[in-house]
Specification:
The protein is built from 19 helices and 25 strands. The protein has 561 residues and is an alpha/beta fold. It has three domains: 302 residues, 3-Layer(aba) Sandwich (Rossmann fold); 119 residues, Domain 2, N(10)-formyltetrahydrofolate synthetase, CATH 3.30.1510.10; 80 residues, Formyltetrahydrofolate synthetase, domain 3, CATH 3.10.410.10. Strands 1, 2, 3, 4, 5, 6, 14, 15, 16, 17, 18 and 19 form a twelve-stranded mixed sheet that branches. Strands 20-22-23-21 form a four-stranded mixed sheet, sandwiched between helices. Strands 7-12-13 form a three-stranded antiparallel sheet, with helices on one face.
């Protein structure tokens, strides 16, 4: 049970933990020391030689952790992922986990880091939430190299006839910086470039981050980079990164970033933390490389997907599993009484009170996610992330509803108790993994883009209809003309609602979903229908976390969470 009055802060717990040398952690999975590239004593990358040795091993069980629609009340998806891994190890299973790498933007903004919480964290927490092994910096440099090559091509005579008004490749940085969302580059006269409009996105929204996480090896990455569309010519022909001669250099910059990072949980469970694409603009999963390594090395491998199951889980199944040939054994849906009461209309200030009416009104959100997950044919386990204010009556209502829907259910107390608090959850997950599994994709990859979009909108979101703006219609026509109808679909949508309207909590139904535009991520292998207002460069809040993060003369960091 979560009890914030008794449990120290996340960073205090992480700093007081007994951290094991990464060589010892690697040994638990049978990884040899010469198969590690050390980044200090507690974190490492794994080498290509390791993959060559293990690639023919039998795969372990793949478990996805996802969640109901996020609310400010908290769900605890990452914490549950870490705690479940620790629970599996506690009951004697050879387990490992995988998470995405945290971005500096949220760490210094409002959301904080992404290393779990309480006694279910990955460590060294400060390193993971800050520069880590430099992967995100590498993506930043590689992305901006492409940008520099584009502007240099324009300056040096523009042999390809690129229309400066139709360059779609922007610049990136790994911070929240709203002032750079829209910029003019090339000012200062003829010697300083061709003036044009551009802007900055946050690094984790870069197509290169998606490519890094979906590439099966270095040559696959280089080929994908070459397919990136950076802009269009005056006669409307796409121009690729390969055509401006930058694919090889980008691959050089990303060669080390492609190797998965190995760290540990507080209880010494091996943890791959690698890659970090946005979940509402990209596919929101850690890398295929990390997942494949984990499956070859562990009997039970736990990973997560960003935001709610309508975004992260759908993309995990339809994009990542399809591209990598993965078959999940079970899926864990994280929910909390507090979050469900918010979906039932209860204000945040009143969530500590027992309110069975609000809880019952919020249950349809969880029900919809369970139904969606069932449609993929994978056994579902609901993990109720318990808070101290939860009452037995409230918990029993959720238990009963999950049973009615055929889902396993477990009370999770991993935040306060670590692996011991996830023992029951681990046992339920092992049982679920033993059940028959009819995993299937939601849509046929050969369907038209419109059919794919409408299948997701109607079957997963509950939309009654889909409408397209004139701009979106033109985008779809262009996609077809370019021969990209075969690409998968990666929906860009608010995480705050199953619908495209963040104000609609609970289970919206029968609404009309509006597609504003459709972007092409040819290198990643998907198109991105944009619904609602999606921000690719966040801004800082009035009181950002950066104001409370500090360090003392002993290099002890405070304020990071």
């Amino acid at each position: 049970m979560i009890n914030s009055n008794k449990v120290p802060s996340d960073i205090e717990i992480a700093q007081s933990a007994k951290i094991r040398p990464i060589v010892e952690v690697a040994e638990k999975l049978g990884i040899r020391e010469d198969e590690l590239v050390h980044y200090g004593p507690f974190k490492a990358k794994v080498t290509r030689a390791l993959w060559e040795r293990i690639k023919n091993n039998k795969d372990g069980r793949l478990i996805l952790v996802t969640a109901i629609t996020p609310t400010p009340a908290g769900e605890g998806k990452t914490t549950t992922t870490v705690g479940l891994g620790q629970g599996l190890a506690l009951i004697g299973k050879k387990a490992a986990i995988a998470l995405r790498e945290p971005s500096l933007g949220p760490s210094f903004g409002v959301k904080g880091g992404a290393a779990g919480g309480g006694y279910s964290q990955v460590i060294p927490m400060e390193d993971i939430n800050l520069h880590f092994t430099g992967d995100i910096h590498a993506v930043t440099s590689a992305h901006n190299l492409v940008s520099a090559m584009i502007d240099n091509h324009l300056q040096q005579g523009n042999e390809l006839g690129i229309d400066p008004r139709r360059v779609v490749w922007r610049r990136v940085m790994d911070l929240n910086e709203r002032a750079l969302r829209h910029v003019i580059v090339g000012l200062g006269g003829k010697a300083h470039g061709v003036p044009r409009e551009s802007g900055f996105d946050i690094t984790v929204a870069s197509e290169l981050m998606a490519i890094l996480c979906l590439s099966t090896d270095l040559m696959d990455l280089k080929e994908r980079v070459g397919r990136i569309i950076i802009g269009y010519t005056y006669d409307n022909k796409p121009v690729t990164a390969k055509e401006i001669g930058v694919a090889g250099s980008v691959a050089v910059l990303l060669k080390d970033a492609l190797k998965p990072n190995l760290v540990q949980t507080l209880e010494g469970v091996p943890a791959f933390v690698h890659g970090g694409p946005f979940a509402n603009i990209a596919h929101g999963c850690n890398s295929i490389q990390a997942t494949k390594h984990g499956l070859k090395l562990a009997d039970y491998f736990v990973t997560e997907a960003g935001f709610g199951a309508d975004l992260g889980a759908e993309k995990f199944f339809d994009i990542k599993c399809r591209m990598a040939g993965l078959k999940p054994s079970a899926v864990v849906l994280v929910a909390s009484v507090r979050a469900l009461k918010m979906h039932g209309g209860l204000p945040k200030a009143e969530l500590s009170k027992e309110d069975l009416v609000a809880l019952k009104a919020g249950l349809p959100n969880m029900e919809k996610h369970i139904e969606n997950l069932n449609s993929f044919g994978v056994p579902v386990v609901v993990a109720i992330n318990r808070f101290p204010t939860d009452t037995e009556k409230e918990l029993e209502i959720i238990r009963k509803r999950c049973a009615d829907l055929g889902a396993f259910v477990s009370i999770s107390e991993v935040w306060e108790m670590g692996g011991e608090g996830g023992r029951d959850l681990a046992e339920k997950v092992v049982e679920a993994c033993s059940r028959s599994n009819g995993f299937r994709y939601l849509y046929d990859a050969d369907s038209s883009p419109r059919e794919k979009i409408e299948t997701i909108a109607k079957k997963i979101y509950g939309a009654g209809d889909v409408q397209y703006t004139d701009a979106a219609e033109k985008d779809l026509a262009n996609i077809s003309a370019l021969g990209f109808d075969h690409l998968l679909v990666c929906m860009a949508k608010t995480q705050a609602s199953i619908s495209d309207d963040p104000a609609k909590v609970g289970r919206p139904d029968g609404f009309t979903l509006t597609v504003r535009e459709v972007r092409i991520s040819a290198g990643a292998g998907f198109i991105v229908p944009i619904t609602g207002s999606i921000m690719t460069m966040p801004g800082l809040p009035k009181k950002p976390a950066a104001m409370i993060i500090d360090i003392d003369s002993e290099e002890r960091i405070t304020g990071l969470f």
